[in-house]
Amino acid sequence: MSTTASDIADLIEPLVAFRRDIHAHPELGFAEHRTSAKIAEALREIGLEVHAGIGGTGVVGVLRAGGSDRSLALRADMDALPIREETGLAYASRTAGVFHGCGHDGHVAMLLGAARHLARTRRFDGTVNFVFQPAEEGLGGARAMIEAGLFDLCPTDQVYALHNWPDLPAGTAQTRAGPIMAAADKFEISLEGRGGHAAMPHQTPDAILAASHLVTQLNSIVSRRIPPTSSAVLSVTKIEGGQSHNVLPAIVRVTGTVRSFEPEVQDTIEAALRDVVAGVATAHGVKPTIIYDRYYPATINHPEAAAEALAAARCACCHADTAPAPAFTSEDFAFMLQARKGAYIWLGQAREGEHVPLHHPAYDFNDAVIPTGIRLHAAIVERLLAA
Ligand SMILES: [Zn+2]
Ligand SMILES: [Zn+2]
Q: Which fold has domain 6-180+298-384?
C-alpha cells in the first residue's frame, strides 16, 4: 500500500513554513548550527531517537518498527552556498551573501516530512535512519559523518538520497545504474620565474607566457589522452599573475577542475597534467608546483538499488525513468555509496515553462515537489523494509 497525497496533506503546510524559515536563515557548510538544532528539535517532537553533532553539525533521527534487524538510511543535505540571492522572495535570505541556491532547504523539508509520516504509519519492519548531513557543497560533510562513526552508531544496510533536479519537470524522477554524478578534482599549478623588467624578457623566465602555453596544453589532455568512448572534462577557471604593464611577474597560478567517472580516466588525466606541467616548465625555465586534490569521488549507484529507487518513484506516482547519462556535477553522497549499497535519485523540480538551474542567484526550491519527495522516501522504506 503506497502513500497517497491525502495521507500526508496535513503535513505540507507546516513543512513549507519550515522550508521557508530555513531558506531565510541559510548557513554555510559545517556552520549549520541553527538548521541542525531546528531539525533535531523537530525529530524529538516526532518521538525519534536523535543523535546530534555527528561530523560537526550532522543530525540523525532513528525510527524503528517491528523486530527485523534490516536497516536503511535516507539522507538530506543542510548547507547553503556563498551566493547573493536575487529571487526577491518574501522569505529570501536574511544573511548577506549566503543562499539556499541548491535546494537543500527543500531536501530537509522532504526528509522531515517522511520522518513525520512514517512515524505515524509505521508500515515497515526494521530501522530507518534519517540522516541530515552538513557541508555537501565541496567540504565533504558526508565523509565527516562517516569518519565520525555514522554507520557504527546507526547501523545501515542501504542508503538513498534525493536531489531536486531543475532539468526535469516536477512530478518526474530519474536515476541510473552505475555513475550518476562525476568525480571532482581541483588543481592549482604555480609557475615560478624570477620576475623582471618587461623590456628585458631575455633576462627572466616569462611565467605569463609559460602559463599561456600551459592552458592550451591542459585543454588538449581530454581530447588526446582519453579514449573517445570515455568522458571527462578539464576546465581552467582562474589565472592569477602580474600587476603592471611593464613588469614580468615572478609567479603565475593556474587553477581549474577535472570531472570524470572512471578511476582509470582520473588517473590518466592527473598523470598527463603532471607531464604537461613538467614539459612546459622545462621549455620556459620556470619552477612548477602542483597541488592536485581529488575531493569527491564519482557517485556510483548500485544497479539493484537504482532499479529499486525507480520502482519506488513509480509507487510515489512519479513518472520515473532511467537517466540517459550521468551529470558532470559532483556530490559527496559518493562517500556514502562507497560505504553502503544504495542509490542517488534526481527528483524533477521544474515549474511549467521555467528553467532556473541549481546555484543560480534566482533559483528557488519548488514547494510543490515536497509531497512527491515524502511519498518517494516512504515508498523506498516500505518496499525495502516490507513488513
Ligand atoms: Zn549544489
Ligand atoms: Zn545540492
A: Aminopeptidase (3.40.630)
Nearest listed ligand to the Cα of residue 106: 2
Element (H, E) at 78: none
* pLDDT, tens digit (0-9, with 9 covering 90-100), for 159-196: 999 999 999 999 999 999 999 999 999 999 999 999 99
SS3 136: coil
Closest C-alpha among 310, 18, 384, 324 to residue 162 = 310
Domain extents in the chain: 6-180+298-384, 183-296
DSSP secondary structure letter of residue 71: E
Could you read off the pLDDT of 242-268 as tens digits, one per residue? 999 999 999 999 999 999 999 999 999
CA 343 to chain centre: 13
183-296 CATH: 3.30.70.360
CA 358 to centroid of ligand 1, rounded, Å: 6
Ligand closest to CA 333: 2
For the chain, report the end-to-end CA distance as a whole number of angstroms.
Answer: 11
Q: Does position 1 have pLDDT exceeding 90, yes or no?
A: no
